[in-house]
Design goal:
- By secondary structure, the protein is an alpha+beta fold.
- It has two domains: about 5-50 and about 135-174, Alpha-Beta Plaits (2-Layer Sandwich); about 55-120, no CATH class.
- The protein is about 45% helix and about 15% strand.
- It is built from five helices and four strands, in the order E-H-E-H-H-H-E-H-E.
- The protein has a four-stranded antiparallel sheet with strand order 2-3-1-4.
- Helix 3 (about 55-80) runs antiparallel to helix 4.
- It is elongated.
- The mean pLDDT is about 90.
Length: about 170
């Protein structure tokens, strides 16, 4: 059985107040576990200290795999398995390989990025979402702080949320 997690949830109505609160709370030494919002808040990634995504590297590698597979397949078919001279062309006519190579590169890069994103984000059909407050899908912003990951006490974190514009502060065990 997994260990239960204790969260302190700061609920905010305005995204500007939320952004300022996250910066202030993090500067105060609190490790914010996650911020839930019904829409993207510009600047939140920087406020939380997130680094840039490496999904572009994955896209490049899957695209390289697609290019390699396309060229290997076409060279194997046209040059090794069944060499035919069509219209006086070489056995391995690279210019005629370009459309198939491009399409397979784009196909594998896009499928690879989507698959990698789903695996990294833990979005699987049989998964159960960790919904700490039902209002985060509607009209409220919630800052979740895991008490097990913080050295500050529950009272100090609650006071920090209240002082920084939270309309309510709740404790939740998951």
């Amino acid at each position: 059985m997994s260990e239960s997690k204790n969260y302190i949830l700061g609920v905010y109505e305005d995204e500007d107040v939320l952004l300022d609160a996250v910066k202030t709370v993090r500067a105060g030494g609190v490790k914010v576990d996650e911020v839930y919002s019904p829409f993207p808040v510009h600047g939140m990634d920087d406020a939380l200290g997130y680094k840039g995504s490496r999904l572009t590297i994955v896209a490049f590698l899957f695209g390289l795999l697609g290019t390699s597979l396309a060229l290997t397949m076409q060279i194997g078919m046209m040059g090794v398995d069944w060499p035919m001279i069509i219209g006086g062309k070489d056995f391995i006519p690279f210019p005629s390989f370009i459309p198939v190579t491009f399409e397979l590169t784009v196909l594998l890069a896009s499928f690879g990025m989507v698959g990698t994103f789903l695996v990294i984000s833990n979005l699987k059909p049989w998964g159960k979402p960790n919904l700490l407050d039902i209002r985060i899908t509607d009209d409220k912003h919630v800052v979740a702080v895991d008490l097990n990951k913080n050295s500050l006490s529950e009272d100090v974190i609650t006071k920090m949320f209240s002082d920084n514009g939270a309309i309510e502060v709740n404790k939740k065990t998951v």
